[in-house]
Design a protein that fits this description.
Elements (H helix, E strand, L loop, with lengths): L1 E8 L6 H21 L6 E4 L2 E5 L8 H11 L5 E11 H4 L9 H14 L5 E8 L8 H15 L4 E2 L6 E8 L2 E5 L2 E6 L7 E6 L5 H11 L2 E9 L12 H13 L1 E8 L1 H7 L7 H20 L3 E3 L12 H9 L5 E2 L7 H10 L3 H5 L19 H11 L3 H10 L2 E6 L2 E7 L9
Parallel strand pairs: 5-6, 5-7, 10-11, 10-13, 11-12, 13-14
Antiparallel strand pairs: 1-3, 1-4, 2-3, 4-8, 4-9, 7-8, 12-15, 15-16
Helix pairs in contact: 4-5, 6-7, 9-10, 9-14
Bound molecules: adenosine-5'-triphosphate and magnesium ion.
The site of magnesium ion has 3 residues, from loops.
């Protein structure tokens, strides 16, 4: 038996040049993901669909193919995908004047028996893409339904809301038969809309924010500020590293910059400032902005959520915005906490998110300011952080860079302090 995977592109309303570009990108992402799983399978885009042609030999079993479908389902940009049995026109001649359709009926009998569940209803959907096929879709649907009713325990047909569908697609190069549509996550293929740098912290919110941007087609890198220097040895165990790794499982290429904020900490040491949280936010925004050109990021992303904690006020977000020219995106701003936790759970990020984050900021005051006047912040920065550019440079020079590719940590190194430019 020969297998294929059919992928239906999401956002079908897209028109014009974008559409072609998005399909091309999705095809590439599918190819790359399969390659990362050691599957060098041809991937073709035809109209609104992408077809993965599995090799026609014994090296591939159904289980391997179905596992690949589950992995692909996590890629943004897919409405649904399905594992299909492929019967080639060359071999079976379905488009001839006297086609022998027994092979299709036999396959349907097997699938109907495999899928049978007591009390449920079914429907058959035939699509005739090649009108040379001798029967109308409706007639062939009836024939197949009769086969199912006669050769399995299925008894109830429901054409409008069936519990189980059996699909037969007739094209000029062959016939696909399938019955397991897996829903994708929709959105747009990663890499099709832009590049962002996400400020990643130890909580639930920022990884979900990064994933939402990935779902809208952005490739994301991460920057995380740590209280102390991390040795490269054993860094794989770090909570932040595992979080970035999980996001990369569905978004592909991801870099994580771990940046110690020791110099900032030292500058404010001994000062009892209740503005330290907002000063820290402004510091993070400036350091992240300085990194943007070297990672080609077009915007920063945070997990800010309006009103969630005392510091997440409009005023504090504005103070952060004012510290940099970079655009700061906050995809979770209007979400409820339950919605964020539900997403985090779906994405497999919840368990790692709830682990205690040992690296919490010693410098952050218990009662952060909820408002902050620009001139007060300017004056504080002038007084205590007078050489800001030097602070940024020193901070970035201490960074380490980790690179992930579809869930694998593929590189870790100390950052070359020549490789970033000034903001
Ligand atoms: P999260 O759940 O993402 O930790 P939070 O609800 O705890 O967010 P804050 O700690 O106020 O909120 O942080 C708001 C946002 O600022 C985070 O979502 C993240 O984008 C960024 N941020 C906070 N701390 C750090 C850090 N140490 N390194 C990088 N980014 C950070
Ligand atoms: Mg946090």
């Amino acid at each position: 038996m020969q297998y294929r995977i059919i992928v239906q592109f999401a956002e079908l309303a897209l028109k014009g040049k974008n559409r072609h570009r998005f399909i091309k990108r999705l095809r590439k992402n599918i190819k790359d993901r399969l390659k990362s799983l050691n599957h060098e399978w041809p991937v073709k885009a035809i109209h609104d669909r992408i077809y993965v042609n599995l090799p026609n030999d014994d090296s591939i079993d159904e289980l391997t193919a179905k596992q690949a479908v589950q992995e692909l389902a996590r890629l943004p940009g897919i409405a649904w995908l399905s594992f299909v049995y492929w019967l080639s026109e060359q071999k079976y001649q379905f488009l001839s004047s006297q086609p022998d359709l027994a092979v299709i009926h036999d396959l349907i009998k097997r699938l109907a028996n495999d899928k049978y569940k007591s009390g449920l209803s079914f429907a058959v959907r035939v699509k005739r893409r090649d009108k040379q096929f001798s029967m109308t879709s409706q007639k062939f649907e009836q024939q197949i339904a009769t086969t199912i009713l006669q050769h399995s325990d299925w008894q109830k047909v429901n054409l409008s809301q069936p519990d189980q569908c059996f699909y037969v697609d007739i094209a000029s190069d062959g016939v696909s038969v399938h019955c397991d549509k897996t829903l994708g996550i929709g959105g747009l293929p990663v890499g099709s809309t832009g590049q962002v740098l996400t400020l990643l912290s130890g909580g639930f919110d920022s990884p979900v924010a990064a994933w939402l941007m990935a779902k809208r087609g952005c490739q994301t890198d991460f920057i995380h500020f740590t209280a102390s220097h991390h040795p490269l040895d054993g860094i794989e165990q770090d909570k932040i590293v595992r979080t970035a790794q999980i996001v990369s499982e569905s978004s592909g290429f991801v870099r994580l910059y771990m940046v110690p904020y020791t110099y900032f900490d030292m500058a404010l040491l001994e000062l009892d400032l209740d503005y330290d949280l907002i000063l820290f936010r402004r510091f993070m925004a400036r350091v992240a902005s300085a990194l943007m050109p070297s990672v080609e990021a077009q915007a920063l992303v945070t997990g800010d959520n309006l009103g969630q904690v005392a510091s997440q006020t409009m005023e504090n977000m504005e103070s952060m915005n004012k510290s940099t020219d970079a655009m700061i995106l906050r995809p979770l701003l209007s979400y409820n906490k339950q919605e964020i936790i539900a997403l985090s759970t779906d994405l497999g990020l919840f368990e790692v998110g709830r682990e205690p984050h040992k690296d919490c900021c010693a410098l952050i005051s218990k009662n952060p300011r909820t408002t902050s006047r620009s001139y007060v912040l300017h004056n504080l920065e002038k007084a205590h952080l007078s050489n800001y550019q030097e602070l940024i440079d020193e901070t970035l020079a201490d960074a380490i860079e980790l690179t992930f590719y579809f869930g694998q940590l593929v590189n870790k190194k100390k950052m070359d302090n020549q490789s970033h430019e000034h903001a």
